Amino acid sequence: MKTYQIPVSNTWWLKKKSYFFFVIREMTSLFVAGYCLFLLVFISKAAESQQAYTELLVSLKSPVSILLHLIFLAFILYHAITWFNLTPKIMVLHIGEEKIPDGLIAVSIYIGWLAVSLIILWIIFGG
């Protein structure tokens, strides 16, 4: 039995704003994965030798490296924020018969993110 397939163009996601932002959000996962690989290389260089680690630190101070880190930061923040905003739609919580408002779930996630970020900053800057 033959089935009819509707032809879809490669630019289907450019036709609607919501499709565009969906695809961008999905593409940001590549930036998350790429930065994870960078962190693995960073750890590897740190374990390799003092000279390799120092060379990596010097290369991270270049304008190109700083620009790349800012681009990665923008995409990773977009990725995190969009997923945090989706969480209340995925994780429906109830207390008894009452549904916890979506806004309360989202705000609690952002407060947790802020708390963890502040703890990490406190550790980095000497606590």
Main attributes?
single chain; 127 residues; mainly alpha; 3 helical TM bundles of succinate and fumarate reductases
Structural commentary:
- This protein has helices spanning 17-48, 50-60, 63-90, 102-124, and strands at 94-95, 98-99.
- It is mainly alpha-helical and 127 residues long.
- Helix 3 (63-90) runs antiparallel to helix 4 (102-124).
- The chain is flat and about 65 Å long.
- The mean pLDDT is 92.
CATH architecture of the largest domain: Up-down Bundle
Distance between the termini: 69 Å
List the domain count as a whole number: 2
Number of strands: 2
**Percent range of helical residues:** over 70%
CATH topology of the largest domain: 3 helical TM bundles of succinate and fumarate reductases
| Major sheet | 2 strands, antiparallel
The unreliable regions are none
Q: What global shape is seen?
A: flat
Spatial order of the strands forming the largest sheet = 1-2
Query: What structural category do the secondary elements indicate?
Result: mainly alpha
Q: What is the level 1 CATH name of the largest domain?
A: Mainly Alpha
Strand content: under 5%
CATH superfamily of the largest domain, by name, is Fumarate reductase/succinate dehydrogenase, transmembrane subunit
The ordered string of helix (H) and strand (E) elements is HHHEEH
